[in-house]
Amino acid sequence: MTGVVKVIDDPSFFRRYPGTTWTTPVVFPRKRSPGWPHYVAVLVRIDHIVINVTDFARSNAFYRDVLGAALVEIDGRVAYRIGGQQLNVHGPGVSPAMVARVPVAPGNSDVCFEWSGPIDDAVAHLERQGVRVEAGPLRRGGAKGVGTSVYFRDPDGSLLELISYG
User: Measured between alpha carbons, how far is 59 from 3 in angstroms, rounded to an integer?
Assistant: First the structure.
């Protein structure tokens, strides 16, 4: 089926089709066909992104201690699992099969993580870990709307952000 992707914001659509949510992209056929209306829900979420580091031991400790990452080994490489997402880690000695046209370099990533509590708790947590807050708390837009963010850096200089919607 060929179609166009639309984000539906008509509340009546969701009452007619239980099980969908406000943010579920829906593919509709270009032309009406027998049995219309029908749809195919195409739910897309980020599975993983790539960061690059210069020192695995230092970065492993940082992402584990500061962000609560579970360190997992996949095909002899390390990855950081944080919530339902994953950071695949490139660095010294890692030769991934596929890379971006301009590969990610140490220090050039910009990643935001959702903090589940008040932003003041995030600031206190960063201070306990010896991590300097570079900016914030500041009001910022994120995936769930407007929240409050603090910015800091990983050991290689990548910009990291914690956003709280509470």
Answer: 43
